[in-house]
Design goal:
- Helix content is about 45%, strand content about 15%.
- It is an alpha+beta fold.
Length: about 270
């Protein structure tokens, strides 16, 4: 068990931010996430965060996964006081960080996310994990399923994927899996590319458009300058930034601002 005092870190907001679809609330103050084949339970009380894992696992997986070497308080200082909307968004979303997720998982997850809502995406991904992932037991006895690997999906048909509620996305997944297995697409190569190169490569995949490519770049490859534009962000830009969003002000971390804008538009009820 690891106890940390973390400023600008909120398990609740991260779980609701739409970055990861295997991150959920278990009870008041308690959450879990499945990533990189491991199951983690966490608790948060104010700024105290408890990670129920070994020190070795914390440093090998979770410290980087939660981007804990990045001080997210720094981004607030770059927002001009004249931008009242973004100022409110940063305050409202304080505690959100950009996760470092598995690249393959983000590719498949954000293909599934197309024209979908968060709850349905989570449901579909859990079906896939139970059917094509590995069944494991955590140290506390919790049974969970790992995310399906490319290899575990190599013989899966479109029809079988449609039975997991994937609909038209089934054909995308079958083709992408085949392209990776046939060495027509190299996920490891992406890790050596800059943001622009990554986006170009990702958009070569069947069914991957600009928005999905940007999500993979931001949440899977940690290119903080990626700025995914979905229906929520499009609405924000049209309503509050009709003259254009000031990307130049936030060069290198545009994606951080995107997350605050997305979360604020999604959950602010004022």
């Amino acid at each position: 068990m690891i106890k940390m005092i973390l400023e600008n870190f909120s398990l609740e907001k991260i779980s609701l931010s739409g970055q990861c679809f295997r991150f959920k609330k278990l009870s008041e103050n308690k959450y879990c996430v499945i990533a990189f084949g491991e199951y983690l339970e966490m608790e948060q009380y104010g700024n105290e965060v408890i990670f129920h894992c070994s020190e070795k696992q914390y440093h090998q997986i979770w410290y980087n996964y939660f981007d804990l070497d990045n001080d997210y308080s720094q981004y607030k200082q770059f927002v001009p006081s004249t931008d009242s909307y973004l100022t409110k968004a940063l305050s409202f979303g304080k505690g959100i960080v950009i996760l470092n997720q598995d690249v393959w998982e983000t590719i498949l997850s954000f293909i599934i996310s197309q024209q979908n809502n968060i709850k349905r995406i989570q449901y579909i991904i859990e079906l896939l994990c139970q059917k094509y992932g590995d069944k494991k037991t955590a140290q506390n006895g919790t049974i969970y399923y790992t995310f399906p690997t490319v290899q575990s999906l190599q013989f899966v048909t479109e029809k079988e994927l449609q039975n997991c509620n994937l609909g038209y996305r089934s054909k995308y997944i079958v083709k992408i899996v085949n392209d990776i297995l046939q060495k027509k697409f190299d996920i490891d190569y992406l890790k050596s590319c800059n943001y622009v190169q990554c986006k170009i490569e990702l958009m070569k995949l069947y069914g991957v458009g600009e928005k999905v490519a940007d999500c993979v770049c931001l949440f899977g490859l940690h290119h903080l300058n990626a700025f995914p534009i979905d229906t929520h962000i499009k609405k924000v830009l049209q309503k509050h930034y009709a003259q254009g969003f000031p990307f130049a002000l936030y060069a290198g971390y545009e994606g951080v601002m995107q997350q605050y804008l997305f979360y604020y538009d999604l959950y602010n009820k004022d």
